[in-house]
Amino acid sequence: MKHIWKIDDQHQLEIKRAFFGSYKVYWNGELIPSKRTSKTLSYTYSFNLPDGRSGELNRHPYTADLDLRIDGKVFLSEFQKKSMTCRKCAAALLPDAKFCEKCGAEVPNMDDQLRLLKLKKARTYIGVLSGLFLVSGIFLTATTYDTNQKTLDKFVSYKDSDMFPKPLNGKQYTFGELRQEIQTETWSPLIVNSVLSVIMLGLFFYSKRSPLVAFLAAGGIYAAVIVVNAVVDPKTIGQGLVMKIIIITLLVGAIRSALELRKSGS
Amino acid sequence: MTDPAKAAQTASIPAWQRRKGSASWEDFRPLLSFYGIVLILFTIFGFIDYFTKGPWVNLVLDILFDSLIISFLAMNWKKVSAAFRLRPVGGKILFELFYLSVLLFFFLKFYFGVFDYFHWPTVHLSESYLKVGWPIWSIFVINAVQPGIFEEIAFRGIIQTRLNRILPWKEALLIQAALFSILHLSVMILVSHFLMGLLLGWVRLKTRQVYWGMLMHMAWNSLVLAQEMYPHWHLF
């Protein structure tokens, strides 16, 4: 994907990937020197343009959000402009449009457009989380169903009140209690993940009405799920670590954007 | 020129309902830091509890949690002290809160009845304490009185009061209820505790203090413990 910013009719800025994940900055096709510094959860490329203006490009390594400012003024890349939709009627906006062609609603300023893009991305990831929870619930139940059914088949000849011959984890069980435990073990991943999926889906739709509350709740729930899984099975801490960081970072960024948008009155 | 009819209508709405708020990231950061620290504490003690399985771990976690809340309260005292002032409450408000509590009680009776019907596992607060022979009064103090006081201080006293200053009241109510339910770290009680958080937050708003919420929270936890230990009373 090309990252191009049309600054005005005669000038454009482009960034291209260089070694070790860094980027080089080009002004009208010519390489200009830039200095990379790291901030919390982002990289900043600072440069000076030939016409004397100073520029700063923030790039988030996990979410790939790009934020270009020249002399403090925000510019959207051509790709970011294509992703913009009207807040009122959700129609695609033409690049650099001041008003929506379909409903006539005013298009917010560049700063707010960038924040709205972050909200849109976070909203998408909440929808993705909802799907992931459902799929993982179905997968976990499907993988254990056969084994658990075979175990239950072995218990067919025993009554519920019969005692299991040896204690399990220091506790003596009846066959009835064991049957209950196995049924719970079979279906609880599906039930728990379905509940989470429905909640996340609800937050996905609610985020259009009240993004701040929805993103806070989604972030809190997701963090709590990670914590509970880590306590029950510490191996899960490392599983999908990159995805977890991306989602938490996106949601925190979305909360900040929602607060800033509210302050700017959008 | 102000429209007299509109001014009269606005004046009849309580101040906390009229407040629009102007939140910034700096306002949110302390609250999210508090939530993050509590989650980390719960993770560490969750690990310890998983391997030791004793009520002592819960007791130590409760003491640390309470200390954290007291520190947080001290740091925020100037901004939240109004919620800790004892105020008279009218009979009309108490009646409204009473019938809302009764409605919630019956909903929760149905909610946990579904759990029992399908034999879904629920948490038994008193089990680990009774196993090691702790006295019954200690179980009520640790599982009813302590959470009733300190969770109300944390969620309704500090979090909701601070959020009320920077957000519209509905959003503050929803956010504190969401954080309250999430922090119990159980998907199955997420919905029930969210509704409880909403009711307790509403009590906090209407009475303008935390004490009535503390009483209701303690009463609810005591009912749950009583049902666990004396199921033949058929409370649920």
Helix % of chain B is over 70%
From the spread of the alpha carbons, the general shape of chain A counts as elongated
Question: Number of DSSP helices of chain A?
Answer: 5
Distance between the termini of chain B: 58 Å
Number of strands of chain B: 0
Number of helices of chain B: 10
How would a textbook summarize the main sheet of chain B? none
What value does the Rg of chain A take, in angstroms? 26 Å
Widest sheet, order of strands of chain A: 5-6-7-8-9
Describe the model.
The complex is a heterodimer of chains A (266) and B (236). With 266 residues, chain A is of the alpha+beta class. Chain A has two domains: 3-83; 114-264, no CATH class. Chain A has helices at 78-83, 110-154, 175-209, 211-232, 241-264, and strands spanning 3-6, 12-17, 23-27, 30-32, 34-39, 42-48, 54-59, 66-70, 73-75. Chain A has a five-stranded antiparallel beta sheet, with helices on one face. A four-stranded antiparallel beta sheet of chain A has the order 1-2-3-4, with no helix packed on it. In chain A, strand 5 (34-39) and strand 6 (42-48) form a beta hairpin. In chain A, helix 2 runs antiparallel to helix 5, helix 3 (175-209) runs antiparallel to helix 4 and helix 4 (211-232) runs antiparallel to helix 5. The longest helix of chain A is centred in the middle third of the chain and has 45 residues, at 110-154. Chain A starts with a strand and ends with a helix. The model of chain A has no long low-confidence stretch (mean pLDDT 83). Chain B is an all-alpha fold. Chain B contains ten helices and no strands. Chain B has helices at residues 4-11, 15-18, 25-52, 55-80, 91-117, 127-131, 136-166, 169-182, 190-207, 211-229. Chain B starts with a helix and ends in a 7-residue tail after the last helix. The relative contact order of chain B is 0.13. The model of chain B has no long low-confidence stretch (mean pLDDT 82). Classes of the chains: A alpha+beta (266), B mainly alpha (236). Chains A and B meet through helix 3, helix 4 and helix 5 of A and helix 3 and helix 8 of B.
